[in-house]
Amino acid sequence: MEKRNIIIAPSLLAANFLQLDREMEMINNSEAGWLHLDVMDGRFVPNISFGLPVISQISKIVNKVCDVHLMILEPERYAEAFRDAGAHNLTVHAEACPHLHRNIQQIKDLGMTAGVALNPHTPIGLLENVINDIDVVLIMSVNPGFGGQKFIPHTLDKIKALRQMIDSSGSKALIEIDGGVTLANAGDIVAAGADVLVAGNTVFSAADPKSVISKLKQA
Ligand code: DX5
Ligand code: ZN
After folding, report:
1. Is 178 in the pocket of ligand 1 (CB under 6 A)?
2. Is 208 a known active-site residue?
3. Which of 68, 129, 151, 161 could form a Cys-Cys staple with 180, CB 3.0–4.6 A?
4. In sequence order, which ranges of the chain are alpha helices (DSSP H)?
5. Where are the domains of the chain?
6. Among the listed residues 194, 150, 152, the one whose alpha carbon sits nearest the alpha carbon of residue 176
7. DSSP sequence for 44-63
8. If you ran DSSP here, which 8-state letter would residue 203 be given?
9. Is the CB of 36 under 6 A from ligand 1?
10. Contacts of 126 (CB under 8 A, 6+ apart)
11. Predicted confidence band at 1 (pLDDT cuts at 50, 70, 90)?
């Protein structure tokens, strides 16, 4: 079987914020395909990260797909602002969206690709009726809110089941895995069926981040 092209999405959350220009230069010169941008509101998740002013500046200097992961309530209030700030893909949490189908249509109407994120406890069955409408399914492999947590092993079964669901539905959605991705578990995550690996600490804490990105891509 032909090997899938694996996309690496380093997560800005783990970058050194005092040296963002250098960190972004490293990203631009790396084999990363996407840059993952975690927005937290202190309500949907118990932490606050960064928002529109940071993303609008970063998106101007980064030559990668800007993958914005909204961990916020009422994401529909901000979708247009994130598009204007440079988001290419906008991912919302199913748990934060009682009208998920409407959120997805809004994101696509704004000209972005649409992702839906699922917390570790949220079953993939929730996506059955929107799987053909979305571009990305983001499976949280830690509880969202913080970088540097340990990968929840049960996620591997969830990825396998989602791979089957996507392939049998004819959906083109990419499977993105977020949280606790390391050089040690990336191979298993890819073998289970993932397309996109988010990596925060594994990339930005490394002595040679570019080579770590390369190795993750070969996983
Ligand atoms: C967690 C965020 C992740 C985080 C991953 O809530 O959604 O994207 O940056 O960080 P690591 O790779 O360090 O677990
Ligand atoms: Zn994330």
Report:
1. yes
2. no
3. 151
4. 20-28, 52-61, 79-84, 100-109, 155-169, 186-192, 201-204, 209-217
5. 7-217
6. 194
7. SSS-B---HHHHHHHHHH--
8. H
9. yes
10. 94, 118
11. low
Query: What is the chain's length?
Result: 219
Using one digit for the tens of pLDDT, what is the confidence trace for 101-120? Answer: 999 999 999 999 999 999 99
Q: Which CATH number fits domain 7-217: 3.10.50.30, 3.20.20.70, 3.40.50.150, 3.40.630.30?
A: 3.20.20.70
Protein residue with least CA distance to atom 4, ligand 1: 147
Using one digit for the tens of pLDDT, what is the confidence trace for 182-204? Answer: 999 999 999 999 999 999 999 99
The answer to whether residue 157 is catalytic is no
Q: For the segment 148-170, what is each residue's pLDDT rounded down to a tens digit? A: 999 999 999 999 999 999 999 99
The amino acid that residue 129 corresponds to is N
Q: Single out the catalytic residue among 67, 135, 178, 195.
A: 178
Beta strand segments in 50-159, E: 65-71, 89-93, 113-118, 136-140
Q: Is the dihedral of CA 117, 148, 36, 82 positive or negative?
A: positive
pTM beyond 0.85, yes or no = yes
Atom of ligand 1 nearest to the CA of 144: 6
